[in-house]
């Protein structure tokens, strides 16, 4: 008798599970006949229930089809509960009436923008990298995503557009997006309707969780802020080589730009600003003010020497221990490689009362990278490949001194 009751109990449970399963399957079928095998089936149903997602006129959802920017805008505005603002999208000549209110709401919230002044790209398909950018903006973390420089362990990270890579990294690090099972992200792949439905549902239901994850990420990943100052510029050429006529201001700028790019591209947890990115002349006080106002962690001034000599030397102001330690690490890395690879002389670590070293409020170093009036030094500096080599040395030295982590797949 006890065995029979037990069997009956199990039979009831099995029948109940079968009923619930058929109920959900029937619900999916009732909504859209083509989502039964979709991994986002329940997200599609849930968002359809609240009117955020709609299918096609033929009654299907087409989960594996790419989604357009207009369709995505309607979903994104829906999960954010933004009121329609069609007047904010009236300047776009290609936005359909059914999407104009949502597009306008997102434009007003600074989440999306047009591809051109009067062209939104409403019928263009949404790429995966753009999808990540828009979701990060929707969560309200655009500035934080751009200010951090997080590691992104995806094999095709080099192919993510510059405007999107930090947003993709931010979304990945808070657990919002993942790559494919092969370790790639597919930044230019088109976003499928079911993928958007899944992510939209996650943000719709778990926004507080992603907000907490984002806040913890920001708290625990404050980047090292490096300020690079290419010496001279504009009307101040600096030293000019009597041998090959190259100007200090030009090669200092070139090396600085490359070093900055390498640091941000290849290392996590670092952001870089420069005192100039073109052939202009900021005054010494302006250079110092830029670094101080940004609250930089380290100041690096790039110069090239003249006056009868050869090789490399570096300068600091005073004997603050942190400044001395950082100079030692950076100087040693650069000097050792130049000596071993090119036989260039190490002229040593020095101190000086240079304005940019004295008045910056953070540890600072000034690098004198070879002599423009020495035949051998000048012949090296004239070579683009050597200037690129110097930029790599500077970037590596800064990264090593600050314990920066090399990004995966770089």
TrEMBL record:
Domain SLH: 27-90, 91-149, 151-214
Signal peptide segment: 1-30
Taxonomic superkingdom: Bacteria
InterPro entries: MurNAc-LAA_cat (IPR002508), N-acetylmuramoyl_amidase_3 (IPR050695), SLH_dom (IPR001119)
SUPFAM superfamilies: Zn-dependent exopeptidases (SSF53187)
Alphabetical list of CDD domains matching this protein: MurNAc-LAA
Keywords from the named record: Hydrolase, Signal
This protein's name: N-acetylmuramoyl-L-alanine amidase
Organism: Caldalkalibacillus uzonensis
């Amino acid at each position: 008798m006890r065995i029979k009751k037990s069997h009956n109990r199990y039979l009831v449970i099995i029948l109940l599970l079968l009923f619930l399963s058929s109920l959900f399957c029937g619900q999916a079928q009732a909504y859209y006949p083509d989502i039964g095998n979709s991994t986002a089936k329940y997200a599609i149903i849930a968002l359809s229930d609240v009117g955020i997602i709609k299918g096609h006129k033929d009654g299907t959802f087409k989960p594996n089809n790419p989604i357009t920017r207009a369709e995505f805008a309607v979903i994104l505005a829906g999960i954010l509960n933004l009121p329609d603002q069609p007047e904010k999208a009236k300047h776009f000549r290609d936005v359909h009436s059914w999407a104009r209110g949502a597009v306008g709401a997102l434009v007003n919230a600074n989440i999306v923008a047009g591809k051109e002044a009067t062209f939104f790209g409403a019928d263009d398909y949404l790429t995966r990298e753009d999808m990540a950018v828009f979701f990060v903006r929707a969560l309200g973390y655009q500035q934080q995503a751009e200010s951090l420089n997080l590691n992104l362990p995806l094999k095709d990270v080099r192919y993510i557009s510059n405007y999107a890579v930090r947003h993709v990294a931010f979304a990945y690090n808070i657990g919002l997006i993942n790559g494919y099972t092969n370790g790639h992200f597919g930044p230019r792949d088109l976003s499928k309707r079911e993928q958007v439905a899944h992510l939209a549902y996650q943000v719709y239901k778990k926004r507080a969780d992603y907000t907490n994850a984002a806040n913890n990420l920001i708290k625990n990943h404050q980047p090292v802020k490096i300020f690079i100052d290419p010496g001279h510029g504009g009307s101040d050429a600096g030293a000019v080589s009597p041998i090959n006529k190259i100007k200090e201001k030009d090669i200092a700028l070139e090396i600085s730009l490359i070093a900055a790019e390498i640091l941000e591209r290849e290392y996590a947890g670092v952001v870089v600003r420069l005192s100039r990115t073109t052939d202009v002349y900021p005054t010494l006080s302006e250079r110092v003010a830029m670094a101080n106002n940004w609250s930089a962690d380290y100041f690096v001034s790039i110069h090239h020497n003249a006056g009868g000599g050869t090789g490399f030397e570096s300068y600091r102001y005073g004997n603050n221990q942190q400044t001395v330690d950082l100079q030692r690490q950076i100087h040693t890395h650069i000097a050792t490689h130049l000596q071993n690879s090119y036989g260039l002389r190490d002229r040593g670590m020095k101190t000086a009362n240079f304005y940019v070293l004295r008045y910056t409020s953070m540890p600072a170093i000034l690098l004198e990278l070879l002599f423009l009036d020495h035949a051998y030094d000048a012949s090296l500096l004239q070579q683009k490949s050597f200037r690129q080599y110097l930029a790599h040395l500077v970037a590596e030295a800064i990264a090593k001194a600050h314990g920066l982590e090399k990004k995966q797949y770089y």
